[in-house]
Design a protein that fits this description.
globular; eight-stranded antiparallel β-sheet; Alpha-D-Glucose-1,6-Bisphosphate, Chain A, domain 4; 216 residues; alpha+beta
């Protein structure tokens, strides 16, 4: 997407946002960007939708979408989404990210998370479009992984002067057998916390950290 189209979006607002994107708008973003949802995030809410079921592994599979308004420009938010070596400082559960591959806009990242008492390591292939502020990821099946599946995306769009709407979608099949109500609780809790973390990190100009939050 060309920068000119982003300028049009910022200038005309939500009323013609979808028209400015044209046919390029991802379906899940179009579904999220309703007037009702935009009004909610403008009021400071975080919009979350989840759907949980049994995956191919017969373990817990969660699908979720999240939308949040951040009082920072797209470039600032994008910086924190793509500076992977610092994401453990503010992202929930994340202990470390290590890059093992880099070819153009393709990045191979090893991620280690701690969820409750379990530590999980897996590998993702991440593609980035720095101009459009779109990031996509999927499980790298050529590497050993502690989960069965994960894939998703981030899409950032300007919303007024110096503000950004971030839309995130994710699908995870952990392979772990847990109760549906627990999977639903964790997915909702994690998406809310993820949105809060990115918003605080971006709005603070990079000074917000998880350790700082715990000490407050």
């Amino acid at each position: 997407m060309h920068m000119g189209r982003w300028m049009i979006v910022a200038a005309v607002g939500f009323g013609t946002w979808l028209q400015a994107w044209g046919e390029d708008v991802p379906p899940h973003v179009k579904d999220m960007m309703t007037e009702e949802n935009v009004a909610k995030v403008e009021a400071g809410d975080i919009v979350v939708f989840t759907n949980n079921e049994k995956g191919d592994s017969q373990g817990a599979q969660g699908k979720g979408r999240m939308m949040v308004l951040i009082n920072a420009p797209c470039g600032e938010v994008w910086k924190h989404l793509t500076t992977f070596e610092k994401q453990h400082e503010f992202m929930p559960h994340l202990q470390s990210i290590t890059m093992y591959r880099h070819e153009g806009n393709l990045y191979g990242l090893q991620q280690t998370l701690k969820i409750v008492l379990k530590t999980v390591t897996y590998h993702v292939l991440q593609t980035r479009d720095d101009e459009s502020h779109v990031l996509r990821f999927e499980l790298d099946r050529s590497k050993p992984n502690d989960i069965v599946e994960t894939k998703g995306s981030w899409v950032l769009t300007p919303h007024g002067e110096g503000k950004t709407i971030a839309v995130y979608q994710v699908q995870v099949d952990s392979g772990f057998k847990v109760a549906d109500f627990l999977q639903n609780f964790v997915m909702n809790y994690d998406l809310q916390n993820l949105a809060q973390a990115l918003r605080r990190r971006s709005e603070s100009g990079g000074t917000y950290t998880k350790s700082r939050q715990r000490s407050m």
